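dude i think i finally got it to work??
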Amino acid sequence: MRKIMFLAIAMMLFIGSAMAQDQQQRGNRGPANPEQRLKMRMERLSQLNLTDEQKAKVEALYKDQDAQMSKLREQQSGGDREAMRANFEKMRTEQDAKMKAILTPEQYAKFTEMNRNMGPRGGMGPRGADQKAQGEVKEKAAEVKADATQAATATDKAAAKAAKKAAAKKAKEEAKLKKAAEEAK
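look at this
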């Protein structure tokens, strides 16, 4: 009994230290507060060479977005996840339109490209590259599926055309036989 208890304690200590080490390697990233998120977003947008006026507008937009997101989460906590997702998507679309109005066309193009390279939850790095690669694979799969559908349709059309020819040929032969039978009477 003591051995089992000792092994259980040793195992718990080992797992705890492994988890702590993993968290330390990931940089102890926890949920960022609104100020930290704003700072990270603005640092990321520094690549766009925003004017002071644009920076002020973008900061106001991001602050408004955080407030709206928090409000939506509170309103729909424990509710219909699909409705929540639809509301978040609608809000993102509106925010994107506002961002497009603030940025120049060149800046907006670069902004959308930067967002395409982001990870699934807004993080940058390898997940973003993985997500981009997965998107490309899905696009290729859709193209292959479309090509296969077109090939199947073409095959179906060719088969239908061949069947029509065969039916016409058979009808001609039957007509000849019927004519020959009538002449024989």
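Helices lie at 2-25, 34-44, 52-76, 81-102, 105-116, 126-184.
im so relieved honestly
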